[in-house]
């Protein structure tokens, strides 16, 4: 799918280092996915790793990724254990949405979420779940998510909200 100056598509194996770099730029160390876990996640569920590629530069501008499951409550272990991926699962635990600072405020995050939702609806999924900090609750509401309240998650020593989007 094309969006302005960006193409939205599944990650290519040779792009994982770019995704890792974006993760390290966009998240503080206590919240960032480790390079090893990012590689494992992309290998386990590449079809659930959507990227925005700058058509002019040929580089990633952002991404959205997750793992499918049959669960309906978010656990921190989804961040670190790609073996929890159940390809036939009807729920996707969204594990990372990041857009390079220079590319923010251009609608890329919205485009990634909308395309992800469309693709996963076509794949028979029914629910997207994620966790976010207080500061991002309104952003995710605008993207169609409902705040389920405080999550059981303590990832990175933070208090998170669980956000849900029925598809």
Shape: globular
Q: So what's the oligomer here?
A: single chain
How can the largest sheet be summarized?
Answer: 8 strands, mixed
Outline the low-pLDDT stretches: none
State the secondary-structure class: alpha+beta
Number of helices: 5
Spatial order of strands in the largest sheet: 1-2-3-4-5-6-8-7
Mean pLDDT: 95
CA radius of gyration: 15 Å
Q: How much of the sequence is in beta strands?
A: 25-35%
Describe this structure in words.
The chain is built from five helices and eight strands; from the N terminus they run ββααββαβαβαββ. By secondary structure, it is α+β, with helices and mostly antiparallel strands. The radius of gyration is 15 Å and the shape is globular.
List key phrases describing it.
167 residues; alpha+beta; eight-stranded mixed β-sheet; 8 strands; globular
Summarize this entry quickly.
The chain is an alpha+beta fold and 167 residues long. Helix content is 28%, strand content 30%.
Secondary-structure map:
Layout (H helix, E strand, L loop, with lengths): L1 E2 L2 E5 L5 H11 L8 H10 L4 E6 L4 E11 L7 H4 L10 E9 L8 H15 L4 E6 L4 H6 L3 E5 L10 E6 L1
Parallel strand pairs: 5-6
Antiparallel strand pairs: 1-2, 2-3, 3-4, 4-5, 6-8, 7-8
């Amino acid at each position: 799918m094309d969006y302005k100056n960006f193409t939205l598509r599944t990650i290519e194996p040779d792009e994982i280092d770019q995704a890792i770099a974006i993760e390290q730029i966009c998240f503080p160390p206590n919240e960032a996915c480790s390079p090893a876990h990012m590689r494992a996640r992309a290998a386990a569920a590449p079809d659930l790793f959507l990227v925005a590629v700058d058509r002019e530069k040929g580089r990633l501008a952002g991404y959205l990724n997750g793992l499918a499951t049959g669960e309906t409550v978010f656990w921190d272990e989804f961040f670190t254990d790609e073996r929890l991926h159940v390809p036939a699962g009807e729920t996707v635990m969204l594990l990372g949405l990041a857009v390079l600072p220079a590319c923010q405020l251009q609608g890329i995050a919205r485009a990634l979420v909308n395309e992800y939702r469309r693709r996963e609806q076509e794949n028979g999924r029914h629910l997207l779940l994620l966790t976010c900090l207080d500061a991002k609750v309104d952003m995710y509401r605008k993207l169609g998510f409902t705040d389920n309240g405080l999550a059981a998650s303590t990832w990175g020593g933070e208090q998170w909200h669980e956000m849900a989007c029925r598809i």
